[in-house]
Every structure is written in C-alpha cells, then in structure tokens.
Amino acid sequence: MNLHKDKQFAQKHGPDAKPDILIKNEIINRAKENKIPCAVAFEIAKELQVSEDAVGMTVDLINYRLVKCQLGLFGYQPKKKIVKPQNKVSEDLKDAISDALVQGRLSCKSALDIASRFKVHKMKVSGACETMGVKIKHCQLGAF
Questions:
Q1: What secondary structure does DSSP assign to the chain, as a single string?
Q2: pTM for this one?
Q3: Which of 82, 100, 103, 131 could form a disulfide with 72 if both were Cys (CB 3.0 to 4.6 A apart)?
C-alpha cells in the first residue's frame, strides 16, 4: 500500500492520526494504482456524509495520491498543473471571483461554488483566476 516511498503524505497529520476505516475502504475500492481523482474523493465524502478534508486526510494516511484536481491545479501528467489562463473573462465572473477573495486568494470551495452558480466548467473559474493573477488556496481535500 505504500506506493510513494519518497513522499510520506501521512506525516503532515502527526503520529497519532489514524485513517477512518469506512473512508479507507471506499478509497481502496475506488482507487487505481493507489491514486484517487479529486472528483471521486468528493463523491466519497458525499456518499459517506463526511467532510472532504476527512477523505483527503485518509488518502494521505494510507499514502495514496490525490490526482486530477477538478480545478486543474495538480495531479496531471506530465506537468502536474493543466489549468490555463482564459483569453477572455466576463465582468460577471471577474466580479464574483473578486467578491469571494479572502486576503487576495480564492478558496477551492468558493471556486467550485462560483462554477456551479455560473453553470460553467470548474476549470473556467480557475482559468479566470490565472488570468486575474489570483491564487486558489485551501483545497477542501487538504492537497494545497
């Protein structure tokens, strides 16, 4: 189960942290090659009625890897990040992003909420952030 010997994701949670058995089993059942996509981690949280960060922590504790961030920020090969700046960002989208900033940054949750509200692809919001020079922080799964 310890696929990434060079990266010990569990260390960031301290020595007393233990994986939730139900979450762990669901991750193991859905993972491929010890990797679990962001969207699947969110599905697990919803289905088990647990927080996204509980799923993310369990992924870390079993030393699996989160991949394919829904915002395109991590977990893609070969470059890791696939989000690209948008050529044009509507004023409405710019305003929504600007209004949601906390200390000049947009949270992952706010980015996903904006995408849902505007009925646009999640990477359109992260691409708008790239264009605007806005960093997305505080991944709901704890990846960044």
A1: ----TT--GGGGG-TT----HHHHHHHHHH-BTTEEEHHHHHHHHHHHT--HHHHHHHHHHTT-EEE--TTSSS-BTTTB------S---HHHHHHHHHH-BTTEEEHHHHHHHHHHHT--HHHHHHHHHHHTPEEE--TTS--
A2: 0.90
A3: 82
